[in-house]
Amino acid sequence: MADLTNPIFTDENAARVHFEALRWPNSPTCPFCSSTTRVAPLGGKSMGPGWYHCKDCRKKFTALVGTVYERSHIPLTKWLLVTHLLCSSKKGMSSHQIMRMTGLTYKSAWFMTHRIREALAERGPLPQMGGEGGIVEIDETFIGKKADVPVRAGYAHKHAVMSLVERRPAGAVVRSFHVSGTAAADLLPVIKVHVSPATHVMTDEAGQYARLNKHFAAHDFTTHGKGEYVRDGFIHTNTAEGFYSVFKRGMVGIYQHCAEHHLHRYVAEFDFRYNNRVRLGVNDSERAAKAIQGTVGKRLTYQQVNFGAKTAPV
C-alpha cells in the first residue's frame, strides 16, 4: 500500500517530477516530433516549471501533452491520487467517494475516473492468448439493463460481457469485451482474433460454443445444468467465474449504474487490476505507476465520454 502522505499527492512540483520520470525514464521527448536530442527546459518565471522547448520543431510543451491529463485544470496531485485510489481498490471506487475524499465536484470526479479508465485499456494489436499447450477459458456474464428493453425471463434485457481467461503458472490473465449478444456470430469473431488456433479452450455447455473444436486444437466443456463444474481436475471455467465474482460485486456494489456506452471502460478497469494483481508480483504503487504510464497517447473529451462507442474495439 502506497503512503498517501507521499508528496506526489500534495506537492505539485513533486507530482510533476514523478510524472516526468514515468513518462520520460531516459530524457524528455518532444510529443510533436519525437526528438530527444534537441529538447531543453524553458527558463524564466513566466512559463513556470515543467515547460520544455524542442529546437527541431520549435514547439513548447509539458509532460502532460498527449496524455489523458492534457488541458486539465485539475492539479496533477489530484490526478495521481485518484489514479492510485482507483487502482488500489479491488472492486473500484465510486465517483461520489472520490468527490468526498478529494473535495472535487462530482462532475470532475466522474470525468476523471473515465479518463483514467481510458488509460487502463489495452490498445493496438495484442498477442493471441494460449498457444500450443495453453488453456483459455471462455465465459460470459450479464450486467445492468438495456435501455428501452423490458425485463423478461433470461438475459435478453441485460448487457453481455465475454471474458477470455488464459491459465498461466504464475496466475491467470484476462481479456474481456462488451459484446452485442451471445450468439456464435457475436462471439466467435472476437475469440478467433484473440485466441491462438493451437489452444485448448474450455467453456460451459452453451450452444454458441458447440463448434469451437473446428477452430482450436481442443475444446472441452462442463455441463453446469447437470451440476458439473469440474471434470478430470482441470476441465472447468472456474477461473473465469472467479474473475466475474469480483467484477459483478464491483459493478453492483460500488458503481451500481452503468450506461451501455460506458461499459467497455469499466470492463477495462477490472481487467487491468486483475492482470496487475499482487499474485502476479505487482503492488499498489507499481500498479498505479503502470496506469500513469498508460495515459500517454490517449485523449478523451467530455463529448467522447458521453457519446462514445457502445462496445470496445476488437
Question: Could you name the ranges where pLDDT drops below 50 across 5 or more consecutive residues?
Answer: 309-314
Number of helices: 9
Specify the overall morphology. elongated
CATH superfamily of the largest domain: Ribonuclease H-like superfamily/Ribonuclease H
Helical/strand content category: alpha/beta
Series of H and E elements: HEEEHHHEEEHEEHHHH
- Determine the CATH topology of the largest domain: Nucleotidyltransferase, domain 5
The major β-sheet equals: 5 strands, mixed
Percentage of residues in strands: 5-15%
Q: Kindly provide the radius of gyration, computed on alpha-carbon positions and rounded to a whole number of angstroms.
A: 22 Å
Helicity range of the residues? 25-40%
Distance between termini?
34 Å
CATH architecture of the largest domain: 2-Layer Sandwich
Number of strands: 8
| CATH top level label of the largest domain | Alpha Beta
| Global mean pLDDT | 91
Strand order of the largest sheet: 6-5-4-7-8
Count of separate structural domains: 2
